[in-house]
Design a protein that fits this description.
mainly alpha; disordered N terminus; 15 helices; 2 strands; two-stranded antiparallel ribbon; 67% helix
Length: 316
């Protein structure tokens, strides 16, 4: 994140756990609110954030105004979060009045969504930020809400709900693949087939079998080889978009041209260009750059596994 800072920069950063970001200024906070309102409206405003305003930014006046907004809203039976986010944007003056109003309208839209649509939108946003476990929890919440709808729905609409649940389970499988959890991904695809067999689940199963690391039969651990592609490409697709093929039929086919198109996009990505740029370096600098890149990848992988263990501990 690179911003022109016009106000005080905090010596002690504030950590936003949902997004795995550390910020040091109000401008950075405003950038997050404006560009990620769907995530900002959940868990961002907290006593810890207000303490950071007072102690690190000398912005006690803003914390006091936020306290007042929240108190008035609570007295009226409201939440107040949208008003607080708007107040922060206005106070910082980083965005224009028109842009602040645009952000307010986006917040209002997200508030108007059904619970299952809101959970899916959050999951897709978190997936885009590589917060995979948080994304999975959102998709699982969406699946539970849809399951409850299915139990109450008339027979004529149950098939449509089952199709959407199958699509959500494919989303979960895609994200599981990003965490190298092949067994869990295949289990989600099996559940999707049980609800509504379709081409998407079959295509993802082919990709998992061909491109995911093999698992040791004794330990269940994967090898160190990385998959060639991200099955998570399909996250956010519209439920029910299949051509009517049975899962068994599709499973015997090769991945379609969409996979090749995804590979071509990967070759044109900034990450791939970064790898290509290493070839232009002399051997010493190239080794140093490769070592730094590998260290970065290992840290990201360890963080994902640490988050996974924390979730398992919470469940047990």
């Amino acid at each position: 994140m690179s911003l022109l800072l016009c106000k005080k920069e905090a010596e002690i950063p504030y950590y936003i756990e949902t997004m795995n970001l550390r910020i040091r200024s109000l401008q950075e906070l405003c950038y997050i609110i404006y560009n990620y309102p769907l995530l900002a409206m959940h868990d961002l405003i907290s006593p810890e954030l207000l303490d950071w305003f007072r102690d690190a930014l000398s912005a006690g006046y803003l914390a006091a105004r936020i306290d007042q907004i929240m108190a008035v809203s609570a007295a009226q039976g409201g939440d107040g979060t949208d008003d607080v986010l708007g107040e922060i944007l206005r106070d910082c003056n980083y965005y224009s009045a028109g842009e602040v109003e645009t952000c307010r309208r986006r917040l209002a839209f997200y508030r108007s969504q059904s619970r299952e649509d809101h959970a899916h939108a959050r999951g897709a946003a978190l997936f885009g930020l590589r917060r995979y476990l948080a994304a999975i929890r959102c998709f699982e919440e969406e699946n539970e809400l849809l399951s409850e709808q299915e139990r109450r729905a008339a027979e004529r609409v149950r098939e449509r709900i089952r199709q959407r649940r199958a699509d959500v389970l494919c989303d979960i499988a895609s994200v599981r693949a990003m965490l190298f959890e092949k067994k869990e991904a295949l289990s989600a695809l099996a559940d999707a087939d049980a609800l509504c067999p379709g081409e998407r689940a079959a295509r993802l199963r082919v990709l998992l079998e061909q491109y995911m690391p093999r698992q040791d039969a004794g330990t269940g651990e994967t090898s160190d080889d990385l998959p060639l592609e991200e099955p998570g490409e399909a996250v956010g697709e519209t439920a029910g978009e299949t051509d009517g093929k049975a899962a068994g039929e599709a499973a015997d086919t090769e991945p379609d041209s969409g996979f090749e198109a995804a590979k071509q996009r990967a070759y044109q990505s900034a990450a791939f260009r970064e790898l290509e740029a290493l070839e232009a370096l002399d051997i010493v600098k190239r080794r140093e750059a490769i070592s730094e890149l590998i260290r970065k990848w290992k840290n990201e992988y360890r963080r994902m596994k640490l988050d996974r263990r924390q979730v398992i501990n919470e469940r047990t």
